[in-house]
Amino acid sequence: MTAPESKEIYKDYLGIVHKKPGDVAPVWRISVYALVERGGKHLFIKQMHNNRWELPGGGVEISESLHEGLLREVYEETGYRVQAEEQPFYIGEKNFFGTRDQKYFRAIALMYRAKLTSEKQDKQVINTIVEDEIADVAWLNIAEVKEDNCLPLFWPVVQGLQGQVGAK
């Protein structure tokens, strides 16, 4: 008997589709991301492997609270310390294939508004956990982020921000 074919799409960081065998269960992953605004610009990162803008953040470790994971991820990826609001303003879901551990993930992405606690950026921490993970850290006008240069998970948030800017 063969395993049923999965209808879910799991792409790796290069955008290559991986078919999940029907008898393989995906691993749930909770991810947290920060929307940080300063002087009319928003903090974005670009990872080496996909060349698209995204909000800083990532997976929460089992030993961390959501906020602890968020503060850690933002610091590791950008060198900035932030303070986040208590509740997420947006919740997204994505499936992906992790090439490092060869697992299929179903991720819940919680996005929080956050503020810098200091203007000081510690650039030395960037890429110290995962070598060559982050290609760029930038403060962008929201109009600079387009659908073709933004990770799909974050595009609804960017569109909402662009609508707010256009309404002003």
Notes on the structure:
It is a single chain. This protein is α+β, with helices and mostly antiparallel strands and 168 residues long. The protein has a single domain, classed as Nucleoside Triphosphate Pyrophosphohydrolase, CATH 3.90.79. It is built from 2 helices and 10 strands, in the order ββββββαββββα. Strands 3, 4, 5, 6, 7, 8, 9 and 10 form an 8-stranded mixed sheet that branches. A hairpin with a 5-residue loop joins β1 (10-11) and β2 (17-18). The longest helix has 13 residues, at 66-78. It is globular.
State the distance separating the first and last CA atoms.
Answer: 60 Å
Strand element count: 10
Largest sheet, in brief, is:
8 strands, mixed
In percent, how much strand structure appears in the residues? 35-45%
Class by alpha and beta content: alpha+beta
- Helix percent reads 10-25%
Over all CA atoms, what is the radius of gyration? 17 Å
| CATH architecture term | Alpha-Beta Complex
Question: What secondary-structure arrangement, pairings included, does this model have?
Answer:
Layout lengths: L9 E2 L5 E2 L8 E12 L2 E7 L5 E2 L2 E3 L6 H13 L3 E3 L5 E9 L4 E14 L17 E7 L14 H13 L1
Parallel strand pairs: 3-9
Antiparallel strand pairs: 1-2, 3-4, 3-6, 4-5, 4-10, 7-9, 8-9
